[in-house]
Amino acid sequence: MKGYDAVVSNRWVRLGAFLVVLVVLAVLPLVADPFTNQTISHIAVFAVAILGLNIVMGFTGQVSLGHSFFVGIGAYAAIIPIRDWWGGPLAEGAIVIGFVLSGLIPGVLGLLIALVTVRLRGLALAMVTIALPTIGLPLAQKFSDFTGGNEGISIRRLDYVGADGQVHKGNPFAAGPGLENDQWQYYIVIAIALAFFALAYFLVRGKYGRAFAIVRSNEAIASSMGVSPYRYKVLAFTIAAVYGGIAGFLLIVWGQFTSSETLAFHHSIDLVIASIVGGAGSIVGAVLGGVFYVTVSQIMNGLQLSIYTTLVQGVVIILILFLLPGGLASLPRTIRRLVRRGAAGHSVEAGHAADSASGNTKTQVQPSEERNT
Amino acid sequence: MKTTLSGRRAIAVAASVGAIALVLAGCARGGGDVAPTGEDTSAAVEPSPGITDTTLTFGISTPLTGATAGPGNCTVDGALAYFGTKNAEGGITFGDGKTRKIEIKSYDDEYNPEKSAANFNQMVADGVFAAGLGLGTPTNRAWREAAIEADVPQVLVMTGDPIFSDRTESPVQLGLVPIYQQEGAAFGEALVANGQPHKVAALYQNDDYGKGYLQGFKDAVAGNPNIEIVKELSYEPGPASSTPNYLEPQVTELAGTGADVFFQAVSVTPRVVENLAKAAAIGWTPIWFLPSNTASPGGVLTPAGVTETTYPGIYAVGFSEAAAAPPFAESEAGKAYFAAIAEYAQGPEQDGKAFPHCVWSWIGAQILEQAFEKMTEPTRDSFLDALYSIKGFDAQFAFGSIDTTVDGLPAIQTVSLQKFNGKGYTNVDVVG
Amino acid sequence: MNPFGTFIQLLVDGLAQGSIYGALALAIVLVNQATGLVNFAQGGMAVLGSYIGLTIGNLLIPGVGSTLGVVLGIVAAVIASLALGGVVERFVMRRFERAEEDTKVVATIGLLTLITGLVGLIWGFNPTPYPFFFGGSESLRIGDVSISVWSIVTFTTIVALMVVLQILFRGTKFGLGMRAVADNAPSAALAGIRVGGLRMAGWGLAAALGTVAAILLASKSQLTPNNFDGILVYALAAVVIGGLDSPIGAVVAALGITILESLAAAYIPWIGHDLKVVVPFVLVFVVLIIRPQGLFGRRAVVRV
Fold first, then answer.
1. What is the ipTM of this complex?
2. What is the CATH number that goes with domain A39-372?
3. pLDDT (tens digit, 9 = 90+) per residue, C107-160?
4. What is the pTM assigned to this prediction?
5. Where are the domains of chain B?
6. Are B348 and C129 an interchain contact pair (Cβ–Cβ within 8 Å)?
7. Out of C103, C278, C292, whose CB is closest to A135?
8. Beta-strand pair B92-93/B99-108
9. Chain A: residue nearest B145 by CA?
10. Residue A134 and residue C140: Cα distance in Å, rounded?
């Protein structure tokens, strides 16, 4: 096992593995069927949303049950400029504006909300976050002339004036020559998702990550060390809102549709469940959470057993909480620990050491990363 | 420095690996290289996906779990029951002379547009020939344009949203149920017809459903000095998971207007039950209008404790027979329907009568059968041509005959105004 | 009906509907006192309990007549909920006693998903009428205002339960033990209090209370698997406004937001019924900022 550990922790092996993943991600859409590409893009959309949730819940321990609010607002911020301006002189510029706004508007809203509310703890914060989609949804429906209400906004066939002076229907996210739409949309989604995952990775590795971990474990100690819990909690909440908003943009790239339903409270619950199943305290966990969110429904559809989906989800969550509190992301670690325990011949000490080494998966991320830097 | 150098080397390696892989992959998916063959009419027609000489696959994306699962399961179960029976009899003989069995595949969208869009991708991957019958405006809208792009028929959808029956906007779509405006208008016209002055209070769901009903009603009574809408209140439908908790404050407020007609476009069954009980309890006894999906005698009126004499009249617009009414269960067709539901339905505890959507799905299945019998080639184009040319077909349980040839109107377009008679409904032309 | 009559009618209706939210809020407070967590599955458990009552009642009605059948069904549902609450605490939630706050929340959300899935599969999604002693339309008239029998029964039942719980908490050994556990479980254990038993009892009582509320609600309209999803959100708002440790606060807040919501909808035109849901949640914001422990809660002392 030592040899295995050494290999896994070798930075070259890690970097190599990362590059292989990159190459596979780059090549895959060219050979895979459209549904595979669409599914991977779909997973990436929600991986980004869940990553935001992990930053606020997993890394700083604030319960957020309103994440769908930020996703929904981000989706509106992205789709409305495209709907209104893409066919006009702004053309592709409308997409850029949509992208910027999808991060900016949820970010500003998140910041304003966080400034007032992050002092709250536990249920109080949870309640404030529940209030966001609960208020946001009727507001979106009230202003249905602007938001499309529950009928939603679809931009797959927008009017534009072509070179021939005629009005055509076009998809702002249609591929150029040489690629299919599913491939093109895949590349946009994956590129943006990767960029935001990289951002989160460096954020969590660095000074901010350490500060988050300290704030999470003990605010009093954080204060005594000169780390302001308030500041870092506001920061985490705001970053989470931005990630939610960007996921909203990616949702538009993937599906070119949104409606007030995207804001709904129960989608926040779905995201929280996916976050925990994947592993709230880790970056990889966000990807696994996205996989869970997208593929459980697909598999149940494929088996023609969808009426059991809710039940299966409930069983999976409870099982994960019982058997893998760190989520699916902690599976390799848990297996290694079990194997080591076996190898050590039930040595209490070894088991103990392994336990404390893995410890709480949520606070453990930073120290181990630190060792590598 | 070492890191930077080795990092560069690694990137270089990755880039070259990637480049090679790209070149290799270049022709892997090359569907574009296939020469077009479709123009040649002398050769046998290339069948569309999802159809063989013995089977046809039809996909339904609809809510199977969550708060809308009740009616959602019905949209699948009616079709499962109808085609289950037909398949057991050997299948359906298509217009090209071949006999095929119909395979229904159902996909749960939880009334979530994002899931229904994903379901469409999955249906395409699963190779469905056509899709439809599913319930919900936002969920059907989420893949309407994708279906147009992919040229997959999205037919007989269960929403009164008019866009699905607009042939220019929706070239591969068709609605099943009357558009909401039609139902509201039918009541409005019958109210005008009685010539009496009326004060109308309205309660509507603040979405395309409620607004559509109200708009239809308003258009029908427009310019008639006898009819005055004294107050309109709305409610938020809320997300699919949490239906509004109670609407009694609205009923109380509307009662205060002293209106003698209550136009109530509410789609949530338990709320309609409460409202019917509430108005009587506070001594407000107007003429009621109920939409077709929440007017079931057994499921709504009886639980509310309403009898023939509680109100001067309870009117509903119907376009199909109600499975919960006694004559339905006694008829031969009704017996066959219930037997088929008992045998083939997949929804939990499905009785086929708690929601009208089961009967609607059964009607939709008959319309599909008509199209199958008429389509002369195993292609989606031929299917759509056949589907758009049904006229004068009398489907079981539907009022009036089916006509799919009119642009702007769904497959079922005959709506009848009905009055509650204590047990079921009687068709009427005039309110009062 | 004159405008004043409408006003009074809105008040009366709000009291009855609000007491349903209040009952669920009370159950949430109870669980929080016993185990220090917020149970998002409280509404789901209540619906499950009411389906059990419905099934047993319907089984018994042919044999013992409708009134006795319904009563026995309710008794059975209450007993089943007591047991269910205890079992869930002992075998599911006990695992998460020392877990992080968010893990606890997710555990109860998982429970809610599981229960909703089960109820849908076992009883289907058709709205089912609950056989009860009286219909929703039977009512007394006082002047212009009508008070339904249902409103009176619901309101008095839930207020009575609240009083009983308050007495239980403040005036009995059981309540003292419960408060000791809520305050500091390890010291309570050292003092010889059976912490585990009290926690199970807290969950069981809360589940039974929720079931009573769910049956009352179902007797007015109908029973569906998602009956309490929307109500849970209001109950949580009431708990936050009233205070997590105050049974009276939770019920008063529940009644308050329900009435305030319908009055705001009726008399403030720009809010109307479209935006009335905003009222309780803006109130949540305001209360949390001004008085984070809730209007009736006691300030928690944070020890480091």
1. 0.89
2. 1.10.3470
3. 999 999 999 999 999 999 888 888 876 665 678 888 888 888 888 999 999 999
4. 0.90
5. 55-178+326-398, 180-318+417-428
6. no
7. C278
8. antiparallel
9. A156
10. 36
